[in-house]
Amino acid sequence: PAPPALLPYVPRVPPAALPGKLTATTFALERPCCVFDRHANASDTVWLAVAFANASAAFRNPPSRADVPPYEQLPTAHSYMTLETAAATYACSASSPAVLRVGGDTLCGGQGGRDPCNGPLPSPGPYRVKFLVMGCHGPKAETRWSDPILLRRAGSPSTIDPAPVRHGSDVVVIASILASLGAVLAVAVLCATGAEAWGSLCHQDSGTGAFARRSYRTHHIPPALPQPLPPGCRCSPPGLGCFAPRPPGPCPAK
């Protein structure tokens, strides 16, 4: 049979930030929309070939569906095929999710037979992937291999230090100096506030004392004594002064 057509499309992990884009057992791929329309019929299917990066060059396209390498042989064959999908799903007019998840089926690892399984990836890799169009008579078209995809590595519990992070002596000295400066500044602010309040109270007390010293007490002033009338003044009611000369002699009693 004729070799499959090589398409210029290169699968890749989405560049945008996505939750779970790369995990310890899975990774996301951009969905290849409008890539296979000219090379696939309605009865054709599209597969995803997954291989360890150092084994992708040795991968051989299966001549039929019965020869598709299963997921269970990945540890020994270093490659497998999964995500069998109708070619129409990737057509330009199809509405479908923007990403595919490789390794997302945790229940298919125990399946027997040749059913395509999308089970969790057993190691961080790295891996390479490509899409392959399969018809009734074998492969019809294929994309290029992706760049190596490295999964996240899970940290070993033995490498985790349970003790708190120890800071250097310089950090401790700087922290102590900053704490001392903060305490001094707080004391200075309190002293300034207290001095201002004390000065205000003293000012109020001094004003009250000055008013007390300026108050008048009239009980110590002796009563005015009657003054003798000058000679020649006529008798008049007290406090009205002298009216006119009077004849000599005492004023007549009332």
TrEMBL record:
GO terms for cellular component: membrane. InterPro entries: Uroplakin-3. PANTHER family: UROPLAKIN III (PTHR15446), UROPLAKIN-3B (PTHR15446:SF15). This is Uroplakin-3b. It comes from Eudyptes chrysocome (Western rockhopper penguin).
